[in-house]
Amino acid sequence: MKLGIVDTMFSRVDMGAIAMDELKTHYPDVTIELRTVPGIKDLAVECKRLLDSGCDSCLALGMVGGAPIDTQCGHEASLGIQQAKLMADKHIVEVFVHENEAWSEHEFFEICENRVRKHAHNAVLLVIDPARLIENAGKGIRQGKEDEGGISQGTGGEEKPIRLAIIVAKFNGEITSEMEREALDTIKKGGQKNKIELEIVHVPGVFDIPLVARKKMMDKKIDGAVALGAVIKGETAHDEAITTDVVRRLGDMSAEFRKPVTLGIIGPGANREAATERAKPYASHATRSAIYLVRLLRDGIEGKMEIEERHKGKK
Fold first, then answer.
1. pLDDT tens-digit map of 73-106
2. Catalytic residue among 75, 98, 202, 238
3. Which regions of the chain carry the CATH code 3.40.50.960?
4. Is-catalytic flag, 119?
5. Domain spanning 2-134 has what CATH number?
6. Residue 142, Cβ density class (10 Å: 0-12 exposed, 13-18 middle, ≥19 buried)
7. Inter-helix orientation angle 105-128/15-26, to 10°
């Protein structure tokens, strides 16, 4: 077999070298031809040339930047690759890594390495042993991150643990630390049907909660989040601005990811005494609501429509 690899100068990770290492380790008999192009929109033509020159399949390796124009370019490049593979009637395995998939350089490199190494096997097996891929059908295999695993018909939602992220603002810590303790006590005393698994994250203030909540919502292992914080009324309307903005962003996020993000945020208009009184009930309610909503969404929401039949009597 002869395999073509095309990578780019734009990528911040040497994806071609990773692919070469994986292939030489596991498929020493495969002949490899490596090419490099400036950017992702140049991948299609170079892959087509390699396929026309005798390669049996190709790996198209590229990084997509985080700006909106980069996303557009990535889409255009992908369309070009699809056209090239159809024209050649051979596989081009597209291996794109988007810069905004990761939250750090370390995470970005891990995604690149995982995705390239897994797809290197796919590019070979599609040619020499496509039946091997059948063995992995329906198993939730992912390239770039951990495999998710398959879902069987008999899998019961009640047996799966509920994994919650509890995000606690450290500002007004004497109040929010009490809220955190109450959230944990609520779970311990709840007699839950499901096992509850927690990830607790502390952020500087309430305004910082949405950023961390978004990262957690992007994690498919997280079922929901609980936001805990206290915004105390001062001499200005600052508390109103903060609370209104955070509540809106968390509500939009919950709808976007279709996961509950429940509010245990005190304010606006609360003085310190009122916030102290509300700490436990707010935290308890937000925690119980998150667990309830996860179960509700897992089990399916069934609405009932009541139809009123009107019989007209004879006058």
1. 999 999 999 999 999 999 999 999 999 999 999 9
2. 238
3. 2-134, 157-299
4. no
5. 3.40.50.960
6. middle
7. 40
